[in-house]
Amino acid sequence: MRASRVMVSAAAWVELLAHTAAEWPREACGLLVGRIDADGNVWIAASEPVANLASTDDAFELDPAARIALQRRLRETGEGHAIVGHYHSHPFGEPDPSVRDLARAEEADLVWLIVSAGPEGVRGVGAYVAAPGSRLVPVALSVRPQ
């Protein structure tokens, strides 16, 4: 089911913005944990910073071992949460999908949060959901209190 709206908990929001700021000027990346309700709303409860394995500062490559470990941990907790997406930063760009992002948008329905952050702080955040044909479709984004 394609997401119609993405809602991020305040705690997850603060953590992912702090992570992207701390990694500047390198792209930061991490996983988003939550659930999708019957109406297609994605509720993000937590963000999990992940090592960026990319060899350059202007790209990201999530550590696959970290994703597998998180998936196992989530299965064991039984809280009904799953990996619903990931985030990464564009240290020198806008919060829009790059050509590289579009080429890697292969996992349908995965939420992508793209954070535009620089030395002055966060400039913007874009929310997208992966769709067939290597597309990232914009979706509404909101931060919800705890």
Features:
146 residues; 8-stranded mixed beta sheet; 3 helices; alpha/beta
Give a structural overview.
The chain is α/β, with parallel strands linked by helices. The protein has a single domain, classed as Cytidine Deaminase, domain 2 (3-Layer(aba) Sandwich). It is built from 3 helices and 8 strands, in the order βαββαβαββββ. It has helices spanning 10-23, 64-77, 99-104; strands at 5-9, 29-36, 41-50, 82-90, 111-118, 121-131, 135-138, 140-144. The protein has an 8-stranded mixed β-sheet. Strand 5 and strand 6 form a beta hairpin.
Give a short overview.
The chain is an alpha/beta fold. The protein has helices spanning 10-23, 64-77, 99-104, and strands at 5-9, 29-36, 41-50, 82-90, 111-118, 121-131, 135-138, 140-144.
What is the CATH level 1 assignment? Alpha Beta
Amino-to-carboxy terminus distance: 25 Å
Order of helices and strands: EHEEHEHEEEE
Average pLDDT over all residues: 93
The CATH fourth-level homologous superfamily: Cytidine Deaminase, domain 2
| CATH topology descriptor | Cytidine Deaminase, domain 2
Q: Which band does the percent of strand residues land in?
A: 35-45%
Low-confidence stretches: none
Q: From the helix content, strand content and strand pairing, which structural class follows? A: alpha/beta
Q: Percentage of helical residues?
A: 10-25%
Shape: globular
In total, the number of strands is: 8
Number of domains: 1
CATH architecture: 3-Layer(aba) Sandwich
Give the strand order, joined by hyphens, for the main sheet. 7-6-5-4-2-3-1-8
How large is the count of helical segments?
A: 3
Rg over C-alpha atoms, rounded to the nearest angstrom: 14 Å
Largest sheet: 8 strands, mixed
